[in-house]
């Protein structure tokens, strides 16, 4: 009788644990919507910061670029969560996709930091301001090229990314 109780207890424990543990892909699928929202909001706030800067509304630009940096950093945190176990997926396309997002976010964070520096540059230092704006543009272009590469990966592998 005691052995039956132990066997039943172990079975219940195994079933309970297996029901609570998600596969790596399930974990990734739970994080991806948050990741996409953070990237989308980061892009939107970056663009609003540029608009604010172009219309001499530096207070608005400062708030928006700060939010962009926050959203891109939140997305980097999402990527870090995914990368903890993504190698176990044994699929180079998925791994490449995640790596491209990570690279894209590095570029976009750098672009946002450069834009923030431009916003904070004193108005009497146009040369430094222009350098920061140039850096921001360069970094964001690299981010968009990487984003395009990621989108091509998805388009060329519809069976994997549905």
How would you concisely characterize the structure shown here?
The protein is built from 5 helices and no strands. It is mostly helical.
Layout of secondary structure:
Layout (H helix, E strand, L loop, with lengths): L1 H19 L3 H31 L3 H26 L8 H29 L5 H30 L7
Helix pairs in contact: 2-3, 2-4, 3-4, 4-5
Structural commentary:
It is a single chain. The chain has one domain. Helix 2 packs parallel to helix 4, helix 3 (58-83) runs antiparallel to helix 4 (92-120) and helix 4 packs antiparallel against helix 5. The chain is elongated, with a radius of gyration of 22 Å. The protein contains 5 helices and no strands. It has 162 residues and is mainly alpha-helical.
Provide the descriptors you would attach to this structure in a database record.
single chain; mainly alpha; 162 residues; 83% helix
Low-confidence stretches are 9-21
Shape assignment: elongated
Label the structural class.
Answer: mainly alpha
Strand content: under 5%
SSE run: HHHHH
Spatial extent as radius of gyration: 22 Å
Number of separate helices: 5
Helix content: over 70%
Q: How many DSSP E strands? A: 0
Quote the average pLDDT: 88
Largest sheet: none
Instruction: Give the total of domains.
Output: 1
């Amino acid at each position: 009788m005691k052995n039956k109780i132990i066997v039943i207890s172990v079975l219940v424990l195994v079933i309970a644990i297996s029901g609570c543990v998600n596969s790596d892909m399930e974990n990734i699928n739970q994080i991806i919507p948050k990741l996409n929202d953070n990237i989308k909001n980061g892009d939107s706030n970056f663009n609003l910061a540029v608009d604010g800067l172009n219309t001499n509304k530096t207070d608005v630009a400062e708030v928006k670029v700060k939010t962009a940096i926050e959203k891109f950093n939140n997305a980097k945190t999402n990527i870090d969560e995914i990368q903890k176990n993504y190698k176990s997926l044994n699929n180079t396309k998925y791994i490449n996709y995640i790596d491209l997002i990570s690279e894209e976010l590095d570029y976009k964070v750098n672009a946002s930091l450069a834009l923030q520096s431009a916003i904070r540059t004193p108005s009497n230092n146009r040369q430094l301001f222009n350098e920061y704006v140039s850096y921001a543009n360069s970094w964001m272009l690299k981010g968009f090229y990487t984003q395009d590469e990621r989108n091509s990966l998805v388009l060329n592998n519809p069976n994997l990314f549905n």
